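Hi P.,

Sorry for the delay on this. The queue was packed all week, but I finally got your sequence through. Input first:
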Amino acid sequence: MILQVEISSFDLRFEDHRLRSPATERILLASIAQNGIRDPLQGVDLEDTHILLNGFKRYRCAKKLGIGIVPYVSLSSDTAAGIIELLRMSNEKGLSILEQARLITELKEGHHMSTADIARLLEKSKAWVSVRSGITGEMSPVVMEKIFSGQFPAYAYLYILRPFIRINRITREEIDEFVGLAAGRNLSIRDIELLANGYFKGSAELGEQLRRGDIAWVLSSLRHPAGKSGDCTAAEQAMLRDLERTQGYMRRVTVRCRQTAFKTGAFFAQANLLTGGILRQLDLFTRAVRDFYDRSGKA
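Then the structure:
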């Protein structure tokens, strides 16, 4: 049942368990200013307190707009049960994997629930729960704060920094330092990837310049290394651009294929045709790229 409750009655103890997105929040603020809050906030009720679990962006927008009464739905009268219900609804509500991980950690550490218990209640495998527990276990408090406050993109941590940790044996302290240097600068994912490669695999000079805060110089050096443009023909430069774009699109499609937000029949019909065409070319593409990799390595 949807209730109308005073915004001052909310307990915000789980606000740092949800990712912030200043850009998304600005869009939402304009929408609420024009149309009001359409979707009710969600939480659990303990005595006279509404512990908020879902709707923090709507809450902050309401505060900015001076809205004192907001729609609200209680998921449970028990905190752990409410978190479980939110996780069960996560496909519809769009919880990211990091938000799922943070809430599962809360169930384990705050409510002493086992992996098996959580998996059973969510109707998921124990591996699904363990993967998410492992993510938060790898993250330091510094990195977690930067990501959940919206200063450093979650995608960049999951798909750029975590592979560095596993493959290159980068320490947690080095990751903390890099995230601290890059956070809050509104860098694109591509720029963060360039900086990470330069910082962890590049010269000492690049690392020192980054520590001094000269992001623009480091990015320029990485984008235009000495001799790159002058020594390549127009055809070679075009090929390098195509390879760079292909790498980027492969990474993007890999991530998006795992999303569960796709629902329409028209989308799946077209996606099936396109993916079928890609699969038919995949073996030829793989052989061509592997041969080119070998040739370039020998050269």
